[in-house]
């Protein structure tokens, strides 16, 4: 239903998500854990919709991510690097596109956004923060979600586990959204949006950190 915008939108989604997963790979186990939760979320949605190909690929990805996470969680014994995190993002983007193509509902576009909400929101907030601060949007900073949590006094493990919880809650919202329709679906989306912006305001993630 995107018609002429389908190809550029797909390219933007794949390139963008590939990089967003890479950008959250700032703490031991963060990217691998979030990718695991996102994979399981998409897997559950694929099972609900009987998408066999997506189910198989996502199950394999979830298994690989869990196996890697065992050695990557703090204190990490191995690291995935840019190549590993970008591969996770690329595969997640690809399988979510396959799932969206198989469904004709608008909800098919919202579900993967929720499933991959943590990296998408973190990158989106970073772009807004840098733009508002008058700095180049591609300039690195220490204002990402995991940096804010560390500044609040959480240690690395606690920060990562909290981001797992956030990712899992967004994933649960995606699974529920796939099961309902009408007013309930709208209520879930509105509730998620309000909670996201409330959390962003509390963390000050839209403000540039003082040097």
Automatic annotation (TrEMBL):
Superkingdom assignment: Bacteria
Pfam family, one: Glycos_transf_4
GO terms under cellular component: plasma membrane
Keywords: Cell membrane, Magnesium, Membrane, Metal-binding, Transferase, Transmembrane, Transmembrane helix
GO biological process, one term: cell wall macromolecule biosynthetic process
Cofactor(s) recorded in Swiss-Prot or TrEMBL: Mg(2+)
Transmembrane spans: 6-24, 29-47, 53-71, 83-101, 107-128, 159-177, 183-200
Membrane topology (UniProt): Multi-pass membrane protein
Subcellular location field: Cell membrane
This protein's record includes keyword Aminoacyl-tRNA synthetase: no
Binding-site residues, Mg(2+): 22, 82
PANTHER family: PHOSPHO-N-ACETYLMURAMOYL-PENTAPEPTIDE-TRANSFERASE, UNDECAPRENYL-PHOSPHATE ALPHA-N-ACETYLGLUCOSAMINYL 1-PHOSPHATE TRANSFERASE
Name used for this protein in its record: UDP-phosphate N-acetylglucosaminyl 1-phosphate transferase
Organism: Anaerovibrio lipolyticus
